[in-house]
Amino acid sequence: MQYKSLNKLAPNVSFENAVILGLAPDKGLYFPEEINELPSSFFNNIETLTNVEIAFEAIKQFVGNEIPENDLKQILSETLNFDFPLTKIEENIFSLELYHGPTMAFKDVGARFMARCLAYFNQKNPEQKNTILVATSGDTGGAVASGFLGVNNVEVVILYPSGKVSDIQERQLTTLGQNITALEVDGVFDDCQEMVKKAFLDEDLAHKNLTSANSINVARWLPQMFYFFFAYKELKKHNKPLIVSVPSGNFGNICAGILAKKLGLPIQHFVASTNENDTVPRFMTTGIYTPKASKATLSNAMDVGNPSNFIRIQELYQNDIEAFKNDFSSYHFSDEETVSSLKEIHKHYNYVAEPHGAVGYLGLKKELANKPNHIGIFLETAHPIKFSDIVETTLELKLPIPKQIESVLNKEKKSVKIKSYEDLKNFLT
Ligand SMILES: *Cc1c(COP(=O)(O)O)cnc(C)c1O
């Protein structure tokens, strides 16, 4: 499969090169040249397939012949070695829990898949060495660190803002060792992001083969479509039109869901639920895309003012705004509404959500208000323990510590403190 740059000024590349480059030389996002619908027999028989078999059918056209079938199946079975339960919350509403992986956030799926693809390509070219450079405001760093741990010929460097990530998130980044280094930046997330961007443009660092591991990378974006298929497999028997609400920040997750729909997956409607960072909800009402600086909220993994994957969604609709509006709504919610939502879900349904899932629930309820005969899913994108401060105070309870988290709590934190871009460059060279 060939990938084109959405800025249209760079040549097409293979899947391998799209993964290794991350972003095209013209700064555009890579996008598949062609998208082919899956045969109806696949959807007719989906109940008989395992998660790995479903994932293989969904992804194979995007990898093409660059990874042989058996190796790709092996990569998928290692990527998907945990559950994706669908929990019934109330009549016709389900929570799709994406947090049962090693770092308890949905980003595990993309990070594990990307790491294994890169490992496969490196083993083919033993001279090839890459450095993954990533800035994190929380969940990305942990998922990338865990996904890439021990992968040959890949060094991982994670920048995080000192004192601005939770204790659990910091431990997930700083305690693994081996090929993972955490740089603790004296600054905020935007400073980390700035330094990473600068490093990608720095000629002096070209020999380091810097690669990004955020959702602009096709190997992180594409596998996120898998669990939309898994959810459909579970709910197909209800035979009702399906609405999926996705708590959205950079819009990578929801964009993968929309891609699944393009492959023929019968999801009738998507809801992009956001916090006060409402660039997309505003676009849906005004038709004008005006990004804003991000605002800090309780659902901080969605504090994004200029969602990087929105352009891929527009490409999926070829800018046909009517078709787009038919399939897609977007609503934003305040922190107060998020807190009430957490309380309501707990009080009425005895379910512990976290702020991102609570925003997803609100968006789903809003859409379902006019669509009584539908079934709704909201994605729970992280385990409540990752946002224990807010969840425990709001719900007045103490969360048990899951085993994945327990295992990092007693490990020793190791980080390298940096203050400036020069420090980063010195570290890398
Ligand atoms: C990253 C993240 C999101 C946002 O996902 P996008 O793909 O960037 O829209 C939502 N919730 C949690 C918990 C996250 O870590």
- The percentage helix is 40-55%
- What can be said about the biggest beta sheet? 6 strands, mixed
Residue-averaged pLDDT, rounded? 95
Measured on Cα atoms, how large is the radius of gyration?
20 Å
- Would you tell me the structural class of the helices and strands? alpha/beta
Q: Roughly what fraction of the amino acids lie in strands?
A: 15-25%
- How many helix segments? 19
The first-to-last residue Cα distance is 34 Å
Principal-axis shape:
globular
Flag low-confidence runs: none
Structure description:
- The strands form three sheets. A six-stranded mixed sheet has the order 4-5-13-10-11-12, sandwiched between helices. Strands 9-6-7-8-14 form a five-stranded parallel sheet, with helices on both faces.
- 43% of the residues lie in helices and 16% in strands.
- The chain is globular and about 60 Å long.
- The two termini are 34 Å apart.
- It has helices spanning 15-21, 40-44, 51-63, 69-79, 107-124, 139-148, 167-174, 189-201, 218-221, 226-235, 252-262, 279-286, 310-316, 321-327, 335-349, 355-368, 388-395, 403-409, 421-428, and strands at residues 2-5, 13-14, 30-32, 86-90, 93-97, 130-135, 154-161, 180-185, 210-211, 242-247, 269-274, 328-332, 375-380, 416-418.
Task: Compile the SSE list and pairings.
Blueprint: E1 2-5, E2 13-14, H1 15-21, E3 30-32, H2 40-44, H3 51-63, H4 69-79, E4 86-90, E5 93-97, H5 107-124, E6 130-135, H6 139-148, E7 154-161, H7 167-174, E8 180-185, H8 189-201, E9 210-211, H9 218-221, H10 226-235, E10 242-247, H11 252-262, E11 269-274, H12 279-286, H13 310-316, H14 321-327, E12 328-332, H15 335-349, H16 355-368, E13 375-380, H17 388-395, H18 403-409, E14 416-418, H19 421-428
Bound molecules: pyridoxal-5'-phosphate.
Pyridoxal-5'-phosphate (PLP) is lined by residues 105, 107, 139, 215, 247-253, 301-302, 356, 381-382.
